[in-house]
Design a protein that fits this description.
It is built from ten helices and 100 strands. The chain is mainly beta.
């Protein structure tokens, strides 16, 4: 059985080992630094600084902790004893290995036999044991700014690795250099926190891990603040807080809210996490929030919560009123804990472009029963127009209706609102006005209630023995008062140029009746009092007066009035003049800006010499070189110092300040000196030592040496890191030994002379010109064991570039150990921080040592590792990279590829969004540093670096990147492609061999008078440009016949040829020289092109001559009126009264009814009833003594068609529906329109088939309508008919359904009319020969002869005075051949005078014709014919029939078959003729023309009677029913 082994640390020793947590280096370490002094560039002072930094990099060791010489000797003695103790431990471990082997062999012989037989006894494994804390962590409570040390002792096999955590997050000494120090001495693991702050209060844990398990020890560290100490407040402004609240809780603020930025209308939360001991859910700590030293109360505009380890203030409806310094105060057991930070609230988007921002801090003062004084603060106007005034709105509480209080904008930030209703509650808001528009409304004021403040003052409270309160009104003490007393103390409480507010004290006594006031005014000293509130009953002792004249002084007095009467007048006020007493303040004094942080600047200034009731200040800033200013604060700031936050690091700014009061903003102060935004920390020291390197990893091991690599310090200390020093120690040893005496410039090192199988630890220090910095944390123990695997070792030095929201570039270095074959590629794996699920980004290995990771989640944090690949397989994974957040830096810009406009150089440039004094731009090609390369040159100016190609060609293609050192990762890349390079090469050539760029080459244009202008236009010309015109190889200069000029503003160069002739044919060239640039442009003007130009020039010359006299400004053109009259129109110019105008058609003059008026400037010739007859050439001639002009218009061909189409367009639109009309020949369809001519394109269709004009289907029309007649209709003609009128663009269609009952009715009417027409054709009638009136002298013979016709032959009867005339010797009646009827009176006498008539009739009807005969004696005057009858010559004897007068026109037809004479005549009976006349008997034509009829004349041999009474005729037309529309 194995013996029990007691560990060395449990044994009792005679001497105790003294430990000091501040101890770090022995004399040996100091000696090592002394040896390195020889290789450093610094002097002895640098050596002292480096030694001091190694002793305590974070803080200075207090005197009571420094070792004396005796203590140093004691320490060396203890070290010797410890060395002896270590030898004992090694012996014990050897004995334990032997015992353990025997036990393991007996228990696991079957499983371990193969492995154990191959091993030699001296390489047996150690005893496996999971970690166990022998000495656990203990809690500590320390004062602020003092150090604390946490330590523990842990055992385990293999030796556990201990990691430290704060609140669950790993403790990273490099994150805050000098803040944390992690040590492992004598098996004791310790964490030292220097200069503790309250934020260091947390739960700390030590986690020990080996391959068999994990153990954790936890302890709480509480950091207290000394009594009276407080955290620094913004600008040193500590708010005035309320009294201290007692508390038994220990509260420590942890993560605190920072400076915040919001926008009007948005929301924001200020959160501060904390540790509460004890943390009782039901007893949260007492928290108070302040804004600008005023305590905030929870409400709709400020939501507060405390609990869950955090205090939160939420502002859900941000306004500029919310801007200010916010302070959180937590009451603790030891007093209070506070934190302050500023909140900025910027203006929301304006309601109109250029409109001002909203006013703020609207409050109501001096509240009375019907009067309130509203005041506010003006907004800042930076780039907007100045504010011209403000509108004040009011709203009753509970309503959303806002009412504007002032009609005109008020210019000051106060306004008296009167006319309120007693007892009502109101809110108020304000809007600013400028020339661009009206601002958004301000936040509404708190609710105010219109109450009489004097009423509460008239109450007296009397306490009786402290138990009862008796309230007595002044009314009870005054007694019974009817008429009130007069008011007192009348004065002006507010005096502005816009208004004056009068105030007075209420009367005493006043009485119980309701009281109101009457105000009077007068010019000071006149005594002419005038009432000013006639329409208003005033209940408050306040009244605003607006209508006072400028420059006049007034006095006021007030009366008290109630229902009983009026008081005496008050004493007059002092003279008051409406004037702005103060005005805006003067400009602030000198403005000084100093550095504060990398994104903020501290600005301070001198107060204005004339403050004038100052409200605060507005601070504006601008980037140096920019014109526009931006507001730094949006609410007036009361103090003369301010920290401007949210600036771009590295940018240079200037600042100015304006003072604010009730009258507005002052003039701007002078600008501050430009200042670059950089941290102020360390300004007193020019350089500092670098921070510690980190990430030490093993790259290779051959059993005797180990190759290491590490990452460069995060902070270089202000100068380049030019040296690294490596120390090593055996993992079981406490003594560090130097590896290199001389500096290492690279971040890799091979440590030689190591013992195989031994564990080693390493640490690295970086050095610069200021000295050697603090050492890194010791590396993890590394076993010196030769690498024999075939796969490659790990890649190392993972870094990142071009970090953006969704992508980044990972870079690494090739592994030192390549394995059995060369490395052929790499795989990159990625995982989110905290996740163990890695994803391989590339499916196939990449040969280069960089990879762009895409598709990242913006804002997420990732870690990466890289594996190298060779022919044997995939090698070890690299050390995990530092976590990187996928988020671009604010203001990040990409690399720009361009060409220098002056030199033509092709370059790549990057403007860094952040930079500091020590930053440098490092350019790479394909992620290999370029360095000194003859193909490129690098220049840096300010925040911009440029990589210029000296002789760019295809060898320069590739991916270029740049990294800005000493920043938070500012970098960018650009891939230069062949197409892009070729494009830039072309542009470069154009710049280096400049050509004057032309917008338009050489061209020509014909001007009036026939001048020809040759011109070209350049993109840009300088005032020093020179040029020349060359025509047919001869230079042309400006002179007679040529005018040459140029315009620099437009870039136009021109030459004008006054007289362009055939001699000007040829080639024209312009040569331009402008500085280094030159160009030329030519124009060949020969052949047909020249002929066309010459013709146009001659035409323009003639046109100019023509326009010297009267001429046509617009030649003849046509229009068509609504009634389809064609108008030939023209416009004339340069006319006078003597100017003549004539119209011609085919050289025949046309004289219109209305003479043309040339003075009106327009003439027109109407052509009514336009048709083909109007074909021809029309001409208008204009002339006077200055010359003449002619315009010709040929109406033929296409012009004629255009006119017809224009007529058809109007006529088609006016066309009526088809109308059915029956005639004796058939059924007619008619379409009425404003005008119709057969030249119009009209198509008749039957059942969608076109109808051609024929004997069966006749097509025609009149000026008023178009018609289509179906002759002798039958059932085949039934169906749908339509007419289509086309105007060349649109077709107008009208339809009619001739079927069913419509057709039946029409057919019956046609048959009736056909029969009636036959009867009309064959009835008896007088064809001609009889006069209307006959005058004859006595004893002459009278012969009345006429031709009659009818089929059958009609009967003829003569009448005299309605009595039938019988044939006698004196009166002879004859009827010859059934054709000629005559009445001959021989030797007429006066008795023969009278009314004669003839009646011609047959079976189809007849006609009755009357003749008046007058007989006069010889010597008598020939009697005049009756009124309304024509004069007729005297009848000749029967032997002279030619003397028969001309017959009259036919009478209108009668509706009855019996002739009906006019009312003045008596009807005569008809007389039948005994015989009949054959139809073939010729009938003479009527001497009277037949009038137009809307119906066609039938083709019949029957003549139309000239006069007489016709037989009845059918109606003119009948309309068929219209079919319904579908």
């Amino acid at each position: 059985m194995a013996s029990k082994v007691i560990p060395w640390y449990k044994r009792k020793h005679g001497s105790r080992v003294k430990t000091d947590y501040a101890y770090q280096h022995s004399k040996t370490v100091v000696t090592q630094h002394a040896e390195r002094k020889s290789s450093s560039k610094s002097a002895s002072q640098v050596q002292a600084q480096a030694t001091e930094a190694m002793a305590e990099p974070a803080y200075t060791i207090p005197e009571f902790r420094q070792r004396a010489a005796e203590e140093t000797e004691e320490y060396q003695r203890v070290s010797t004893n410890v060395g002896k103790g270590l030898a004992v431990i090694q012996e014990e471990l050897s004995r334990m290995r032997i015992t353990t082997k025997a036990r393991v062999d007996s228990l696991n012989i079957q499983r371990e036999v193969r492995d154990m037989m191959a091993k030699r006894p001296e390489y047996l494994d150690d005893i496996p044991k999971m970690p166990d804390f022998l000495v656990a962590l203990r809690p500590h409570t320390v004062w602020e700014k003092t150090p604390v040390k946490l330590f523990c002792t842990v055992q385990g096999n293999p030796r556990p690795i201990v990691k430290w955590y704060k609140g669950g997050a790993p403790v990273d000494p490099l994150s805050a250099p000098g803040k944390y120090k992690i040590e492992n001495k004598y098996g004791v693991h310790s964490l030292i926190i220097s200069r503790c702050a309250v934020s260091d209060t947390a739960e700390y844990s030590a986690v020990a891990t080996n391959q068999h398990g994990t153990a954790t020890s936890k302890a709480t560290v509480t950091v207290k603040r000394a009594s009276g100490a407080g955290e620094s407040c913004h600008l040193g402004l500590v708010p005035h807080l309320t009294e201290i609240h007692p508390s038994k809780l220990e509260v420590t603020l942890l993560d605190r809210f920072k400076v915040s930025f919001g926008v009007e209308g948005g929301s924001i939360s200020l959160v501060c996490s904390m540790v509460v001991i004890p943390d009782l859910p039901n007893v949260p700590p007492i928290a108070q929030w302040y804004r600008d030293d005023k305590l905030l109360k929870a409400g709709k505009l400020a939501e507060m919560s405390v609990g869950g380890g955090a205090a939160r203030l939420t502002l859900p409806h941000l306004a500029k009123d919310d801007e200010g310094l916010y302070t959180l105060r937590i009451f603790t057991k030891d007093g209070t804990a506070e934190h302050s930070a500023y909140l900025f609230v910027s203006d929301a988007a304006p309601s109109a472009a250029g409109a001002p921002g909203a006013p703020m801090s609207v409050k109501a003062y001096d509240i009375n029963s019907d009067y309130v004084l509203v005041a506010w603060k003006p907004p800042n106007t930076v780039n907007e127009a100045a504010i011209s005034g403000y509108f004040v709105d009011r709203c009753e509480a509970g309503s959303d209706t806002w009412v504007q209080c002032n009609d005109a904008p008020v210019k000051v930030c106060k306004y008296p609102v009167h006319g309120l209703k007693v007892g009502r509650s109101y809110h108020f808001r304000v809007r600013a006005v400028n020339s661009a528009g009206i601002s958004r409304p301000s936040r509404k004021s708190d609710k105010v209630t219109a109450l009489d403040d004097a009423e509460s003052q008239r109450l007296q409270v009397i306490k009786i023995e402290g138990r009862y309160d008796i309230v007595i009104k002044d009314d009870d003490l005054e007694g019974y008062v009817t008429i009130p007393g007069e008011p007192t103390d009348v004065h002006a409480s507010e005096v502005f140029k816009s208004y004056v507010v009068l105030s007075w004290s209420p009367p005493s006594p006043r009485g119980r009746a309701p009281l109101w006031y009457v105000i009077e005014k007068c010019l000071a000293g006149t005594g002419a009092w005038q009432r000013i509130n006639t329409a208003v009953k005033l209940h408050s002792p306040r009244y605003p007066v607006f209508d006072l004249q400028d420059g006049q002084k007034y006095q006021f007095r007030v009366y008290s009035v109630n229902l009983y009467g009026s008081s005496e007048a008050s004493a007059p006020s002092e003279p008051v003049e409406k004037v702005d007493e103060d005005g805006v303040p003067s400009a602030p004094g000198q403005v000084i800006a100093t550095r504060n942080t990398k994104s903020s600047v501290f600005v301070q200034w001198d107060a204005p010499k004339s403050p004038k009731n100052l409200m605060g200040y507005y601070i504006d800033g601008r980037v140096v070189g920019a014109k526009e200013w931006f507001p730094c604060n949006h609410k007036p700031f009361k103090h003369t110092r301010f920290v401007v936050h949210g600036l771009i690091p590295g940018e240079t700014y200037a600042f100015r300040v304006q003072a604010v009061n009730v009258f507005g903003l002052s003039e701007e102060s002078q600008e501050s000196s430009p200042i670059a935004v950089e941290p102020a920390l360390g300004k007193g020291v020019e350089y500092a030592t670098p921070s510690a390197p980190f990430g030490i990893t093993m790259l290779s091991c051959d059993g005797a040496s180990i190759t290491l690599a590490w990452k460069s310090p995060k902070h270089c200390g202000g100068s380049k890191v030019n040296a690294y020093y490596v120390d090593k120690r055996n993992a079981d040893s406490l003594v560090w030994k130097e590896v290199n005496q001389s500096a290492i410039t690279e971040r890799t090192c091979t440590v030689e002379n190591l013992t195989e199988g031994t564990f080693y630890e390493f640490k690295v220090q970086a050095g610069n010109m200021a000295g050697v910095g603090v050492p890194s944390a010791p590396s993890a123990p590394m076993k010196c064991e030769a690498w024999t695997m075939d796969e490659p070792g790990p890649a190392y030095d993972l870094s990142f570039s071009e970090v953006r929201g969704h992508s980044l570039v990972v870079l690494w270095k090739a592994p030192v150990y390549t394995g059995a074959s060369a490395v052929t590629g790499y795989f990159v794996e990625m995982a989110k921080k905290g996740s163990s699920e890695f994803v391989t980004l590339n499916e196939e290995a990449v040969s280069h040592r960089y990879l762009q990771a895409t598709g990242l989640e913006e804002g997420a944090t990732y870690v990466f590792k890289v594996r190298a690949v060779n022919a044997s397989g995939v090698g070890k994974a690299s050390q995990l990279s530092e976590p990187v957040c996928a988020k671009a830096l604010p203001g990040t810009k990409e690399i720009l590829a361009s060409v220098d406009e002056e030199t033509g150089d092709i370059f790549l440039s990057l403007e860094a969004c952040e930079i500091c004094e020590t930053s440098k731009f490092v350019w790479s090609k394909n992620y290999k540093p370029i360095g000194d390369c003859p193909r490129v040159s690098v220049s840096t100016k300010g925040r911009t670096s440029r990589l210029t190609f000296t002789s760019p060609d295809k060898d320069d293609l590739g991916r270029y990147s740049v990294v800005v050192t000493d920043t938070d990762g500012v970098s960018g890349s650009h891939t230069l492609t062949e197409d892009a390079l070729n494009t830039m090469l072309e542009l470069s050539y154009a710049i280096r061999h400049p050509v004057v760029p032309l917008k338009h080459g050489l061209n020509y244009e014909i001007l009036e008078k026939g001048h020809v202008r040759f011109w070209l236009q350049a993109v840009k010309l300088s005032p020093s440009v020179s040029y020349r015109f060359i025509v047919n190889d001869k230079e042309v200069t400006s002179g007679e016949g040529h005018k040459i000029s140029h315009d620099v503003a437009t870039g136009v160069i021109q030459m004008t040829v006054d007289h362009f002739t055939r001699a000007n044919e040829g080639t024209y060239t312009v040569q331009i020289h402008d500085g280094k640039a030159k160009t030329q442009s030519s124009l060949v003007l020969v052949g047909d092109v020249f002929k066309a130009a010459l013709k146009e020039a001659e035409f323009q010359r003639k046109e100019h001559i023509r326009k010297q006299g009267p001429h046509f400004s617009e030649y003849l053109y046509f229009t068509v009126t609504e009634d389809c009259t064609v108008m030939l129109a023209c416009k004339v110019a340069n006319v006078k009264k003597e100017t003549t105008f004539h119209w011609y058609k085919e050289d025949d003059e046309i004289v219109p009814e209305t003479p043309p008026n040339v003075m009106s400037g327009a003439c027109a010739l109407p052509i009514p009833l336009f048709s083909r007859k109007d074909h021809g050439v029309y001409k208008a001639v204009l002339g006077d003594d200055r010359g003449k002009d002619t315009s010709v218009f040929d109406i033929s061909g296409q012009v004629f068609d255009d006119i017809i189409n224009a007529i058809a367009h109007i006529a088609g639109a006016s066309a009526s529906d088809l109308v059915l009309q029956c005639t004796p020949e058939g059924i007619r369809l008619q379409c009425y329109m404003s005008y119709y001519t057969e030249e119009m394109k009209t198509v008749w269709k039957h059942k969608e088939s076109k109808i051609a004009s024929s004997e069966k289907m006749r097509i025609g029309g009149t000026a008023e309508m178009a018609w289509m007649q179906i002759c002798d209709p039958s059932d085949k003609e039934k169906g749908h008919y339509s007419i289509e009128i086309s105007d060349g663009v649109k077709t107008h269609t009208r339809t009619f359904d001739l079927s069913g009952q419509a057709y039946t009715d029409a057919y019956e009417e046609y048959l009736r009319l056909k029969a009636a027409a036959f009867a009309e054709k064959n009835r008896g009638r007088v064809v001609g020969g009889l006069p209307d009136v006959v005058t004859i002298m006595e004893q002459k013979s009278l012969s009345l002869t006429c031709t009659v016709w009818g089929e059958p032959t009609p009967e003829v009867t003569w009448f005299k005075n309605e009595q039938e005339v019988a044939s006698t010797e004196h009166t002879k009646v004859t009827f010859d051949g059934g054709k000629f009827a005559s009445l001959v009176i021989n030797q007429v006498t006066p008795d023969d005078s009278g009314k004669y008539s003839i009646n011609v009739r047959n079976k189809y009807g007849g006609e009755f014709v009357e003749i008046t005969v007058s007989v006069y004696r010889h010597g008598e005057k020939i009697p005049e014919p009756k009124l309304g009858q024509p004069k007729t010559p005297a009848a000749t004897p029967a032997a002279t029939p030619a003397a028969t007068p001309v017959p009259r026109s036919p009478a209108p037809p009668s509706k009855t078959p019996t002739p009906t004479p006019s009312k003045s005549h008596t009807p005569a009976p008809s007389v039948k003729s005994p015989g009949s006349t054959p139809a073939s008997t010729p009938v003479p034509k009527s001497p009277t023309p037949v009038p137009k009829s809307p119906t066609p004349t039938p083709k019949s041999p029957t003549p139309t009677p000239s006069r007489g009474v016709k037989s009845p005729t059918p109606p003119r037309f009948m309309k068929s029913p219209t079919p319904p529309r579908k």
